[in-house]
Amino acid sequence: MALEIKNVSRTFEGSMKETLKDISLSVEQGEFICVVGPSGCGKSTLLNIIAGLDFPTDGEIFLDEKKITAPGADRVVMFQEHALFPWLNVMENVKFGMKMMGVPKEEQNRRAEHYLKMVQLWEFREYSVHEISGGMRQRTALARSLCLDGPVLLMDEPFSALDKQTTNKLRADLERIWEETGKTVIFVTHSVEEAVFLADRIVVLSDNPGCIKEIFQVGLPRPRRNDAVEFLEVRHNILSCVEREVEKFAKEEYDHEKMA
Amino acid sequence: MQKKNMTMKKWLSSILFAMLLLLAWQIIYTLGTGVLGWWKSYAMPSPLGVVESLGKMLGNGTLWKATAYSLRRVVLGFVISLVVGTLLGILISSSDYFNRNLKPFLNGVQSLPSVCWVPFAILWFGLGEASILFVIVIGSTFSVSLAIENAIRTVPPIYIKAAQTMGAGKRQLYLSVIWPAALPGVLAGLKQSWSFAWRALMSGEVMSAYVGLGYTLMSGRDLADINQVTGVMLVIILVGVLVDKAVFSNLERRVLKKRGL
Lengths: 260, 261
Fold this sequence. Notes:
The structure holds two protein chains of two kinds. Chain A is an alpha/beta fold.
């Protein structure tokens, strides 16, 4: 068992509403978990608590039997915005976390090269953050996260600010990299399609209070194609099964699809 | 080529505007001290008179010496302000207690014109270098602190979160994230602190210097030489602007350019 979430609740001060209520989940090592739910259901809060950036008002979380109390490089987070440092170039950004951890210089360079090549940005290592595209920034952020070699990768809607083509490419990249590295991934998204494409299991949160509505096992073989009949079937099942909860974002997604 | 022409045009129009201003000045002077009789001729400077006075002061070395003394004082004072102000700024940005309680005081004291400190300066340090230095330091230190506090407070939280999840400790967070992220804001703030220091210097020099731009200005008053007063005023503006452009704006531009801002 890699990650054990035990009865986690979170109430914010001054609010009667429980943002998260009694969340329990066991995540296997190397498992790819997607968390979906309507906006405001607390999925980002859950991720922040796992990251140690926020704290549960009740319950606890264990990573390899060690209780999580603070942020740490064993659970590096990839945010919706790239969160790269504009005063560093691509290479320096990728090496930042390793520097913090005191990884020896040579090893830093070796890993940075390895992962920058993996995300196909080695040629751009000298570029400033403002000189590269949004998709390249997220790939840089991914390389930066991977360099730390932690067992768990937490991703908070990392592709949602990107255009559809870039998103599709990055999903495929992420899946390949996940298979190569065997990391445990907790991936928060508002897109059921994205979840079905990536996840081993999909956790659906309900809104107000935010609790686990249902957990779906996605049995589809990889790599998945989002136009395959089986894919659409699973996606439809999840969407209709949780229709009430996801009404808002299901509509959003269907509209999006129509436009595309 | 097109762009170069445009810049040329803008420059030319600016120069033309300045010339018109000078011309207007000369006309007002001639009419005001002549037929209209608004001023006595010693109470109104004229462009030609100012140029003549500046030439004289440059020729006999007064202006060079005054500028050198003034710059030396302000640099020394500003460096002290930087050190003390930075420490205070770090204090009020890293402690909630001091942020709540001390920051409002600094804000209040900062709004006080530095000339108000001159009586204290003279009582405590007498007439001379130390009292001028005191006025500069007290006139710009708090501005430095507030600039630093403001720059640190407005560092995007996502940078800090990202660094924390990559295992950065408190010290590393300060040195490798907060500091570089706050740098553009700090530089913008220091620009203002510099202008406070420069103004404070003049307050101090006017009161208690025996040499310096402020002193030369006052000696112009004592000699009833309004052209000298005006000439020195122009030099004070010029030096203030030059330091701002050459040091602070320059640094700021470089930092922002590197970040694509």
